[in-house]
Amino acid sequence: MIQEKQQNRWLSWTLYISLGVVGIGLATVLYWLNAPQDVLKINEPITVRPAHAQREGAVVLNFNFCKLTNSQGTVERRLVSDKTETISSKRPDNTLWGCHENVEVGVSIPAQAVPDTYHFEYTAEYRVNPFKTIVEEFRSEEFTVTDKQL
Questions:
Q1: Which of 49, 55, 95, 140 has the most crowded Cβ, counting Cβ within 10 A?
Q2: Would you give the distance in Å from CA 91 to the centre of its chain?
Q3: pLDDT of residue 57
Q4: pLDDT confidence bin for 16, thresholds 50/70/90
């Protein structure tokens, strides 16, 4: 009889501990699924210099942004006009968290860019937990591409 009571106690404790672990696991998964999480905040418009660029030339983009977590992700850049869209390959984003001001990035204008008004569109994907990927989209100011002068 005493052995039965001890066995029942061990079973009860095992059951309580198992239920506690399952409850904590379920709470964690629900938090990961529903927690709002911003990864990136662009503080100002992304400026482009010069405002008029030539095909096969280059422009400089100026970013002011805050990265709110240390999540690593990928960034895809597209050169977009009303007539065409050029996609660059995805690149890793391992920028450290914190605010970054006046970050300048040089970008080459491809030879196939037809004369038109363009802007850059960015899509950044960040895997913030095993169940959630955050996608951030932003764009630059417009600028004009002209034919290359010979």
A1: 140
A2: 11
A3: 92
A4: confident
Sign of the dihedral through C-alpha 48, 85, 107, 115: negative
Collect all residues with Cβ–Cβ distance below 8 Å to 124 and sequence separation of at least 6: 39, 40, 73, 74, 75, 76, 93, 135, 136, 137, 138
> In one letter, which amino acid is 107?
V
| Pairing relationship of beta strands 52-54 and 143-146 according to DSSP bridges | parallel
Do residues 21 and 83 both lie within one domain? no
Taking alpha carbons only, the member of 68, 63, 82 closest to residue 139 is: 63
Can you say whether the dihedral through the CA atoms of 30, 32, 34, 35 is positive or negative?
positive
Number of structural domains found in the chain: 2
**CA–CA separation, 4 vs 13, rounded Å?**
14
Instruction: Note whether 118 and 83 are within 8 A (CB).
Output: no
Question: Domain range for residue 84?
Answer: 40-146
